[in-house]
């Protein structure tokens, strides 16, 4: 039968353990308030005890209530012989809203919607302290108080990462508000795959433009009207959506004299195909030396 300490993942560390380490042990204890753990793993410092944070999926489910209510001033101890201090990251866990394959293909996600998006805005800065006399022991301290929410601490290089999912005052967090503030969509053909939900319009434009090329084939002035003709070529291997186009007239110094928006003859284009466009403006400004056509930037 498991003891209470075992169930909570709390490790009682006795003064006799590793006593031979002398002053180096005292240096670790002075910084952390706890003694060196013998077990490998990821731990949170709680008073003068270490709370285990990583384990088997079954163990993590069983102990989630205890691991989800860490303090905003939480500090972590890592014991892993392979840990060098590199690759230690603390990510705020995001809520994935949907799977996006294009403006016309937005689907609900299957499975867990709590994801580590690995975007800079979801990273919580930490300082990592090493102990030269004890390789493999790290003290990880967030630079600032950690906001209430879900987090994942990762240690190690890609492919060999030790992970611990935790909560900071999570029982008191209003879930809908947290999900809204930390919302991401997953895009099947973009890297990075996750983008903040608020940028969906911008990402649609990025997806549409990827692999598209604009060719201006003819510029003509007749009866005071400037007409621009060209085509859009899809160099990608799949159908693309064409965003709106923007035309601008500039002078010899590159100053924009006039700008307007227009639509191509089709809003979608098959792989390898091209779509034509024509646009015109009456009485172009004096000093016009050049016409530019580009895809409209979102936002």
From TrEMBL:
Keyword Signal recorded: yes
PROSITE patterns linked: PROKAR_LIPOPROTEIN
Signal sequence bounds: 1-19
Entry keyword set: Signal
Domain of life: Bacteria
Listed name of the protein: Lipoprotein
Organism: Minwuia thermotolerans
Upper lineage: Bacteria, Pseudomonadati, Pseudomonadota, Alphaproteobacteria, Minwuiales
């Amino acid at each position: 039968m498991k003891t209470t300490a075992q169930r909570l993942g709390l490790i009682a560390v006795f003064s006799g353990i590793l006593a031979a380490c002398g002053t180096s042990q005292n240096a670790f204890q002075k910084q952390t308030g706890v003694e060196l753990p013998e077990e490998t793993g990821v731990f949170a410092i709680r008073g003068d005890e270490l709370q285990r944070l990583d384990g088997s999926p079954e163990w993590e489910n069983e102990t989630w209530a205890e691991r989800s209510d860490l303090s905003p001033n939480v500090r972590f101890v890592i014991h892993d012989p392979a840990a060098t201090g590199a690759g230690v990251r603390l990510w705020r866990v995001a809520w994935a809203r949907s799977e996006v394959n294009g403006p016309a293909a937005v689907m609900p996600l299957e499975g867990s919607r709590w994801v580590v998006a690995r975007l800079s805005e979801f990273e919580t800065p930490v300082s990592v302290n090493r102990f030269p006399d004890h390789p493999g022991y790290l003290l990880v301290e967030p630079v600032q108080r950690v906001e209430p929410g879900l987090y994942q601490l990762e240690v190690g290089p890609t492919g060999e990462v030790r992970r611990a999912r935790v909560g900071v005052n999570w029982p008191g967090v209003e879930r809908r508000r947290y999900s809204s503030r930390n919302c991401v969509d997953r895009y099947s053909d973009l890297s990075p795959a996750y983008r903040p939900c608020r940028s969906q319009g911008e990402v649609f434009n990025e997806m549409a433009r990827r692999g598209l090329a604009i060719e201006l084939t003819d510029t003509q002035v007749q009866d005071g009207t400037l007409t621009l003709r060209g085509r859009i070529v899809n160099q990608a291997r799949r159908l693309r959506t064409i965003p709106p186009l923007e035309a601008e007239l500039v002078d010899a110094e590159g100053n924009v004299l006039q700008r307007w928006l227009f639509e191509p003859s089709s809003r979608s284009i098959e792989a390898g195909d091209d779509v034509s466009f024509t646009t015109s403006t009456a009485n172009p400004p004096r000093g016009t030396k050049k016409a530019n056509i580009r895809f409209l930037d979102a936002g």
